[in-house]
C-alpha cells in the first residue's frame, strides 16, 4: 500500500501576540494526522514561516511548498488554522484551485474543514471571506489616517523627491524647495517635450553633464520617475478635474484648488509596496492633496508629458525578444563595454535590413562613444559560421564548470531568500507600527513611530535594490545554464543544419555557446564559453 504523503504548513507573525507558536501548530497537526490516519502508512514533511504576514503568499517556505505540490509530491496539505495559509481571498482561491488541480486534499483543523467533501469546500471559502474582511478593515483605518495627515500638507515619509528637501519635526515634516534641483526638473520637462523620448533626454543630460543627487548619470527609469511624479504640479482647477474624472481621493475642495496660486501637490498611496519595483496602483486609489511646497509645472504640461510617455511605451520595441536580433544577448562594445540595441530599417512596412547600435553611443549622442554600427546580417552570419566549426568534444569536456555554476546558483538563491525574509519582516514591522500610529496620532510617541517607519522604509528600499540585482543575475544564470548532453546533440545537428534552424533554436545555441561577441568598429571577436 502506498504511503500517504502529507505536508504540514505553519506560519506566525513574529510580533503578533496571543497566537499559537510554530511548534504548537505543528504538534496539533501531527496529533490530528495520527487521529485520522491511525491505521495507514504516511510520511510527513513540515514547512514553516516565522515572521511573515498572511497578507500575501510571498513567503519562502510556502513558495517551496507550492513548488513541491506542482511536482506531485503530496496528497494532503494540513494546517492549524485557515489564515495560516492566507488572509487574502484572491490568493486563497487560487491556492484551492491549485490543490484541486493536483488532487491534494486540504485540512484546516481549527475550522474543521476538509476539501474532500463539498460542504468543507464551501465553508472554507466563506471563512476566507471573513479572514480578508479583518485585513481590509485594518487597511481602511490606515487609509483614513493617511487622508487626515495628508490634509495638513505633511510629508508622510519615503524617498524625498528630486527638487525638494525635508524639514520640521518628525510629527510635522514638510517639503521645502531645492532651487538648484528644481531648475533642472523644469529643464527635464521642457527637453522631454522637445526631444520626445527618454533615451534622447538621457543623452541630453549626459551631454550637459547634468547628474543626479548622488552625482551619477541619470538612467531612464530615474528620469521617468521624475516626469511622472505629480509632486511638481501646481495645484489648480485643471488638476482637480483630472483627479475627479479619474476618481482619485481628493483631500481639498474645488474652491481650494481654484484659489491656490503656486502650491504643489502631495500624492500618496500611488505604489503597491508588495512589488519590488513599486508598481503603480490604479488612479482611483491615489490620495491627492495640496501641499505646503511650491509647485513648478502646470497641469497641462504634466498631462502632455504623461500622454507622451504612454504613447512612447506602446511604440518602444522589445529588442531582447526581437525575432531579427540573434546577437542581442551577447554583443558588446569593445570601446565602452555597453550592450547594443537592434535597429530595423523598413520600406513600405517590410524589413529591408537591420543593424546593432551601441546604447552608450545613442544615449550620449556620440559624446561618450562613437563606435560604428554593426551590420546585423553580416555579424550574425559570421557567428553562425563560427558555431558550425565549433569543436564539440573540446566544449563538452568542460563539465567541471557546470558544477561550479550550480554552486554559484545555490549561493545566489540563499542570498535571495535571506533578503526576501528581511524585506517581509521589515514590511510586517511597518504594518504594525502604522497600526500603532493610528492609536497614538496626537501623542508624543507618534514622532518616534514615524521616525522608525522612515528608517525601516529606507532599509527596505536598499534591500529591494539588492534583491532586484540578485534576481537579474539569477535569471541570467538560468538562461545560460547548460544541459551538456542535450546541447551536444543539438550542436551535432546544428553543424549540418544551422541555417535551417528556427530563430529561437539559433538564438539558444548562441547563448549557450558564446560568452560574448566584441565589436571595435571594424572587426568582431568571438569569445566562446569555457574555452
From TrEMBL:
Domain of life the protein comes from: Bacteria
Limits of the Resolvase/invertase-type recombinase catalytic domain: 5-153
Keywords: Coiled coil
Record carries keyword Coiled coil: yes
Pfam families found in the cross-reference section: Recombinase (PF07508), Resolvase (PF00239), Zn_ribbon_recom (PF13408)
Domain (Recombinase) ranges: 161-315
Name this polypeptide is given: Recombinase family protein
Native species: Clostridium brassicae
